[in-house]
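FYI - complex with calcium ion, inputs then prediction.
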Amino acid sequence: MKNSSKWASRSVCCAILAATSITPALAGLQKDFGSLIPASADDQTQQLIITMRDQSPDEMPRRMREVGASAAVALSHVRKMSGNAHVVKLEQRMRHADARRLARLLAADPRVQSAEPDLRVFAQQLPNDPMFAQQWHYYEAAGGINLPAAWDITSGAPSLVIAVLDSGVTAHADLAGRILPGYDFIANLTNANDGSGRDADANDPGDYGCDNSNSSWHGTHVAGTLGASSSNSSGVSGINWKSRLLPVRVTGRCGGYTSDLIDGLRWAAGIEIAGIPSNPNPARVANISLGTASDNCSAAFQSAINDVTARGMVVVTAAGNGGTAVSAFSPANCSGVIAVAAITRSGAKASYSNTGSMVTIAAPGGGAGSGILSTVNTGLTSPAADGYAFFQGTSMAAPHVAGTASLMLSANPTLTPAQVRQLMQSSARAFPVGTESDCHPGICGAGIVNAGAAVAAALAGAPLARTPPVPSTPQIANTTQPAPTWKQCADEGGVCRFSGTRQVRYGGNGAYAYKSASEALACSNSVFGDPAYGALKSCQYAN
Ligand SMILES: [Ca+2]
Ligand SMILES: [Ca+2]
Ligand SMILES: [Ca+2]
């Protein structure tokens, strides 16, 4: 058991039809609903359920085609189902979130009573990791986060990135394939404990040797909760099974400096840091299970949080383990963060948890005898063998919330950080009463994070996209020039390869930046600039 007070601180493309008029309200929203997606993805459908106001069965296939044409999508009638609704097929699969946006567009048609995606459902699947049964914090009614219900909707989008600002991550079989190359931002040689200042190796060499302490493997434990290899018949389960983890090393022996944390946070979000190579994998979620006693949020830290939040990053941080007021603990007392208090297995307030009105939400951090089980290393100093251990603390509570945020953004990448926060709070579970130390709103946040309800709310809350900007190259078919067909070539962070010189676009959800290139082009913000939205970005070339 670790000392809980330690802070080591988106075709229907090309189905452009001219036969029917397009109502002005819908103009500009036709075009693309999502990018091409792999056939293996769970969160996709090729069907809608539509109920017409005129429910007579006459010429339903033609009427469905006309409704689709008004929205510039090809709809083919499959069959009438119960309740006077109809199953309608799309030309190709699209993600559930995109299908929901399309359905809302169709529902705006006065001929349509209702339209919704025909979501694919799956048997409730639990991971086969042998230690999952000991991870009460994922599923128990009193102190768990209702995670299996979230997994029914998504276990994570492969293109999403979660930054782990912590002590680095050490090699572990149950994290294999889950970790991106990160960066080590520790400038101070004593803290670094790896013989050098800042470097490209974010592995945790151990943080032993401060007051004779053993190594904590704090970052490895937090990373395992966020995203251990799951349903791999080995070890523990992580909250997110598919999104990638970006280790940003900011604490080591005897902690670390806020200045390194600030630089690391901006870098994680894809902001350039002088002297450091660009981050090719900008994160949408950052977990900061770190902090320090401070009566106010430092101006420099608040500025960094504002910068990364403006880029769509959700910043989750621990409320702190002092058992005192969260207002005296930073960065939990900074504006715009999701500050997480800890509850025990019974759902009671954890004795160590900081509390107060600045807490956003609560999550399991464990208590004596019932900690949070995740990945560690067995080395007392330097890394030795893979291990698993129960830790407790708000450091352990925060990744339950950051992991849930990553699943919400996987289900609906258009959500802003403020929307993630609001949906997470409104879907939270009420604190149990009659524990020895009840939590309640006002001291422990809106409630206990409910991953299943939060991810469902994220999916249902898909906002209708704003009108896409007019692209710099012709997009819509007209009588003289056909629109190009776009071929998917890379996810964000990858390299788009093609033959000859072609137009390449980067973005999603109808918003794209365009470049002309020969042979290959990196699919990243730094090459294309950042389209105003389309958080789940990918690249396609004109075929
Ligand atoms: Ca170093
Ligand atoms: Ca290093
Ligand atoms: Ca596992």
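The first strand starts at residue 44 and ends at 52. The first helix runs from residue 60 to 70.
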